[in-house]
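Quarterly update, task 2.4: nicotinamide-adenine-dinucleotide-bound model.
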Amino acid sequence: MDRDTYRVAILGCRGRGRAAALAYHDHPRTKIVGLCDLIEERVDALGQQIDVTERFTNLNEMIDQTAPDIVAIPTGTEFHHGLCMAVLEHRVHIEVEKPMCIDLVQADDIISKAERQGSKVAVHHQGRVSPAMQTLQHAVNQGLIGNIRYIYGSGKGYYGGYGLMNIGTHMINNMLRFGGSCRSVVAQATTKGQPITPQDVVPSPSGMGTIACEHLTATLQFDNDVTATLLQHRFDKMDTSAYVMEIYGSEGRLFWKGNNAWWLPQPHYFPNVQQWETLDLVVPNHYKSDNQSDPSDYCFVDDYVRALDEDDEHECSGYEGRHVLEIMMGVFESAARGKRVLLPQKDRGHPLLRWRTEFGLGKLEPLPRDYGNWLSTQVD
Ligand SMILES: NC(=O)c1ccc[n+]([C@@H]2O[C@H](COP(=O)([O-])OP(=O)(O)OC[C@H]3O[C@@H](n4cnc5c(N)ncnc54)[C@H](O)[C@@H]3O)[C@@H](O)[C@H]2O)c1
C-alpha cells in the first residue's frame, strides 16, 4: 500500500484524540478525513481547531462515509478491545492508545482479527519512536556504548500495579526496542510493607483492568545475557523526574528523560571524573517549528507512514503491544506466586483473577475510576 496521502479518522476527541489529530494534521503524508465522539461538542471543538467538517457521533457512519486507511482509537482503556474489534470489521488499519487492552485474551483477539482482515495494528507508545529514543538508537548503532548489558527504568510514583499498566507499558516498550524479546520475568511486590495476598487484588483506576501491588520491582530477562530492572513504586508525591531510562553498555551508558538523551563514554560513572554528554536529537526534517503536535506523536505518525509504504509493521506494532502485555501479566503472576514466569505464557487469562479464584474469592467490588479518588480507598 503506497499512497501519496493516507486518510485518517479519529475515534475519540478528548485529550489523546486531540494529540493524535494534531500529529496526523501536521504530517505532510496524512490527512484527517473524519472525527467521531459520542459527545458532539467534543467533535465540534476538535473539528474547529483543525478545520475538519466531517464530524460524527457514530463510528460506523464515520468509517462508511469517509473511507479512511487508518482509524485512531484514543479512548479509555476499557473500551479498546470492543472498539478495535468493531473498527477492524471495516478492514482498515488501526492504532489504539496504550495499554493495548486489559489482558492477553483481548490482545490475542485483536491480533487474530487484524490478521484475518489484512489490517495492521499499532499501539500508541509514542515514546519508543520519539526523537530522544531514535537518538539513543542511533548512538547504539554507532557503537557508542559497545554491547548492551543492562537497562534500568522507573515510573513516576503511581500506585505500583497501576503504574505498571499506565506508565510501565511505555517503559517496557522502550526496553523492547533495545533488549529484543523478553524471555522471563521475576517480580517483588509489596502492599503496605508486606508481600501481596489475593486480598490485595483490586480493579485498576482508569479502566485498566485488574491490578495489585503498591510497590513493584521487576527484572526482565532478554537474549544475549541482557537484563532489565523496572521500578513502579508509589511515592507519597508524584515525581515525573523519576521517569527515566538508562542503558548500560560494555563501553558506555545512555540516559533518557523526556525529550533529552545523554551519553557517558565510560561504562561506570564516577562523579567529578567524567561528565554526561548531551546528544543532538534526531528529528524528522519535515517536522516544522510551527507544528502544533508533540514531536513524539508526530514521529509515531511518521513510522505508520513508513510501515504502510513498505508493507512493514509499525515499530510499535500490535505484536509489540501484546508482548508488553505478556510482560505486565507475567510481572503480576510472578508477584503473586513468588516465582519466575516464562514468556509467552500458555494461560492467557488475567493471572491475578486466576489467583483470587484459586483462593475461593469472588468477584471484585467496583472502585472509583478517577485515580485520586481510587487512591484514597487504598492508602491511609
Ligand atoms: N500515549 C500517551 O502518552 C497517553 C497519555 C495519557 C493517556 N493515554 C491513554 O489514552 C487513553 C485515554 O485517552 P483520553 O484521556 O483522551 O480518554 P478520555 O476518556 O478522556 O477520552 C476518550 C474520548 O473518547 C470518546 N469515546 C468513547 N467511546 C466512544 C465511542 N464508542 N465512539 C466515539 N467516541 C467514544 C469519549 O466520549 C471521550 O471523549 C487511555 O487508554 C490512556 O491510557 C495515553
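Highlight for this quarter: The radius of gyration is 21 Å.
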